[in-house]
Design brief:
The longest helix is centred in the middle third of the chain and has 22 residues. With 508 residues, the chain is of the alpha/beta class. The two termini are 46 Å apart. Strands 8, 9, 10, 11, 12, 15, 16, 17 and 19 form a 9-stranded mixed β-sheet that branches. Strands 1, 2, 3, 4, 5, 6 and 7 form a 7-stranded mixed β-sheet that branches. A 3-stranded mixed β-sheet has the order 13-14-18. It binds ligand BES, manganese (II) ion and zinc ion. The site of ligand BES has 16 residues, from loops. Its main location: cytoplasm. Belongs to the peptidase M17 family. It comes from Nocardioides gansuensis. It is found in: Cytoplasm.
């Protein structure tokens, strides 16, 4: 059995502080980072730059010219200095100073500051609260690292980031705290998705959910394989049947302060496949290689649940994560098997690699019957077809309700996690029919849509939204706030939605 004590300590995101002072007035920092704004007659330096140049006796504008800097978002000009005050000045392009550009500036700066102790920066001082938050999120997520080395992490995030030049520093506290909650949730889901599956089996992931959830003040319930069997979770059990490590179901309950009987409830269901071999319909090696992160939907739900209090979510939220390893063995489910889901619906398994919908179906049926939510949202790395449809920087979603889709689009735009709505084409609904069961789990093309139709049957006619981010779960390279590897996509979008003033406006 894998042992959780084997995973070495991981790096932490930088710490953040706010200050009204300018960099040259803040002692003891290793780096000063100053904003560069694009201008019609060449780039301009932002707050604190004149004072820094004077103190250090360097021509920072000249450095920009030598580097042919333009001020576009994330562009960096580094100026080493010999001074008792500071070692390095980094000039950071902030583009149009929108949240998107400041997120990118933050991520780019974070990469350049690996292994530095501290930075004082006025980049956030040019920006309103949303852009300050975006800069913090970008700086956090651009710093992300995961390792399992014998001699410690290859590099460490900058230790401390002072957001300087903010005369109203005290009023920015709330924006900073919210940003740290969002960035921290993205970090956490990326971390969970990065853990190799020789450690991350369903039991381990359920324990993580319990620890994380209880630390955040949530009520956490874990179903083991016996209770799953006793209560009829046939989909979760079938997918987990071939594994040496049995499946789990986790429920996490968040109740807002001052909740009454009229407070609405959102159910969030996340796919928690801790490894997807494909099962007996085995995946080829290239497709299997990254399947430790087939629990990314579950990670997004766990990380989101743990941050709801920090963003003052006004509605009840119940998170459900069915966890199983889709493995190969003598007790694996077979092509042609028929399984009975929670609540009684049956499915013919025509492809064991379409396992995500089998575990999601059980958890959704449970949500509809036992949680009785006002809105149901499910989040999964469900179909490789999403990569073909949308590429690797956009996730797809399906919604049974236009008002819910509108809330989701607004949250996406705010968070920078891109999504695109796809159609639940009526004409394709019949494709999921089976000769022997209520549905076929692998109805074929168009893959993402037939998968959505399969799940739709378990949504109980609720306002329902299905997010399929198989496209956006793995970054091929370091880019903007994404680091190469699992993305931890989802929590920023979900928290922007659930942390808004009225997440269910126009829905209930
Ligand atoms: N976990 C995969 C989907 C996936 C593919 C996620 C690529 C991320 C990257 C899912 O369980 C799967 O195998 N889906 C199959 C379904 C098919 C057999 C109907 C697919 O998309 O090929
Ligand atoms: Mn699969
Ligand atoms: Zn899968």
């Amino acid at each position: 059995m894998a042992d959780s004590r084997l995973l070495p300590p991981q790096v932490s995101p930088p710490e953040f502080a706010l200050s009204p002072a300018l960099p040259h007035q803040v002692g003891g920092a290793e780096v000063w980072a100053l904003p560069v704004l694009p201008g019609d007659d060449g780039p301009l330096l932002g707050p604190g730059a004149d004072e820094a140049a004077e103190r250090l006796g360097v021509d920072l504008l000249g450095a920009l010219e030598s580097a042919r800097a333009t001020g576009r978002a994330g562009e960096l000009v580094t100026v080493p200095v010999v001074s008792d005050d500071v070692r390095l000045v980094v000039l950071v392009g902030v583009g149009d100073q929108s949240p998107t550009d400041l997120r990118r500036a933050g991520a780019s700066l974070a990469r350049a500051l690996k292994d530095r102790a501290s930075v004082v920066t006025t980049v956030a001082s040019i920006a309103p609260d949303e852009a300050l938050a975006a800069f913090v999120v970008g700086t956090m997520l651009g710093s992300f690292g995961f390792h399992w080395r014998s001699d410690g992490p290859a590099e460490r995030p900058v230790g401390r980031v002072v957001l300087a030049g903010l005369p109203d520093a005290e009023e920015r506290d709330e924006a900073l705290a919210r940003a740290i909650a969002l960035g921290g949730a993205g970090w956490r889901s990326r971390m969970l998705a990065s853990v190799p599956s020789n450690l991350k089996n369903p039991g381990w992931l359920a324990e993580q959910a319990r620890e994380i959830g209880e630390a955040a003040g949530l009520e956490v319930t874990v179903w083991d394989e016996e209770r799953l069997a006793a209560e009829g979770f046939g989909g979760i059990l079938a997918v987990g049947a071939g594994s040496a490590t049995p499946p789990r179901l986790v429920r996490m309950d968040y109740t807002p302060h001052g909740a009454s009987r009229r407070t609405p409830t959102v159910a969030l269901v996340g796919k928690g496949i801790t490894f997807d071999t494909g099962g007996l319909d085995i995946k080829p090696p290239d497709n299997m290689l990254t399947m430790k992160r087939d629990m990314s939907g579950g990670a997004a739900v766990i990380a989101t649940m743990a941050a709801l209090r920090d963003v003052d979510c006004p509605v009840r939220v119940v998170g459900l994560v069915p966890m199983a390893e889709n493995a190969i063995g003598g007790s694996s489910m077979r092509p042609g098997d028929v399984i009975r889901h929670y609540g009684g619906r049956t499915t013919e398994v025509t492809n064991t690699d379409a396992e995500g919908r089998l575990v999601m179906a059980d958890a959704m049926a449970y949500a509809v019957r036992e949680v009785e939510p006002d809105v149901l949202v499910d989040v999964a790395t469900l179909t490789g077809a999403m990569k073909v449809a949308l590429g690797l920087n956009t996730a797809g979603y399906f919604a049974s309700h236009d008002g819910l889709a509108a809330r989701f689009d607004a949250a996406s735009a705010e968070s920078g996690e891109l999504v695109w709505r796809l159609p639940l084409v009526d004409d394709y609904r019949e494709r999921i029919t089976s000769k022997v069961a209520d549905a076929d789990n692998s109805a074929g093309s168009p893959m993402a849509i037939t998968a959505a139709h399969f799940l739709e049957a378990f949504s109980g006619d609720l306002p329902w939204l299905h997010l399929d981010f198989a496209s956006h779960a793995e970054a091929p390279a370091d880019r903007h706030e994404w680091t190469q590897g699992p993305t931890g996509f989802g929590p920023r979008l979900l928290l922007a939605w659930l942390g808004s003033d009225d997440p269910l406006e126009g829905v209930v």
